[in-house]
What we know:
43% of the residues lie in helices and 14% in strands. It is an alpha/beta fold.
Amino acid sequence: MxxxxxxxxxxxEADFQRSADTHLFKLELPALRDVDIYLKDESTHPTGSLKHxxxxxxxxxxxxxxxxxxxxxxxxxSSGSTAVSEAYFAKxxxxxxxxxxxxxxxxxxxxxxxxYGGQCHFVESAPxxxxxxxxxxxxxxxxxxxxxxxxxxxxxxxxxNNIAESIFRQMARERFPVPSVLVMSAGTxxxxxxxxxxxxxxxxxxxxxxxxxxxxxxxxxxxxRDATLTRACSSRIEGIGRPKVEKSFQxxxxxxxxxxxxxxxxxxxxxxxxxxGRKVGGSTGTNLWGALEIAGEMQAAGKRGSIxxxxxxxxxxxLNTYHNPDWVAAEFGDLSGPLGELDRWx
Length: 346
């Protein structure tokens, strides 16, 4: 191992040692008596999202596979949060970083990438990102990190304080310590792969349910068992949903999938933000809507247990979008329907 790689790995591991684990908090809902819902709050990472875990793993994977070198640019295709986290690690190692992203990405994410010294290369829609990143890497002599390919293999799914191990450890003293269900959305598919593999590795009786927004191909691919399906449009819920089935998406470790209407995702984003007094992102709304649906079904069937889902990031990045009433009205219309359904829980 070269001295530069050795020092780069040391820096990343030192940063990890300085970082505390993220909180798991219980969502208190009076209407749920025998089903407990918890959210794993990934917004407290140094770069503010679940993607901090992924970016750290991707950099270590690339370093240990001999893909990174001094001054070699790092290229990533990302709608925002992964790019923010990768820009953080690239700055730590003194590497140039370029994010290829849709032009409509939240301005606050673009600003955060720039704050870490990264640059943004814009395309019109998500289906264009991969080819543009591949071309840019070839032209610059850079390395395409390719989260959508490597996410499921870069993380040690058997443990090492990954998100799955952390959830089960933090649940140990709750009244239903082994969750009945884990609910997770898919962007790369890497986190759902880690959760599903860990459940099987440990022999837990937990089911993994993956929720998917509109304009994403994952749900249709899963139900039809066809990995060749594609869509020509972008997901309106930033960070999750994809126009093609990414290599990191592992359907065989998933027990069920549900499609969540975009209006329901945004309504739940706003509703949860009011419940906890903190703004959350759109993918958290997708996750929680799915968790609440399952909780209602469990309670109606007389079942008891716990459900854990993920707060993927905070809402400060979405002040101009999901937390802007005018923008929401123009993009999603009237949310009174799903908001009315949510009221029954509070």
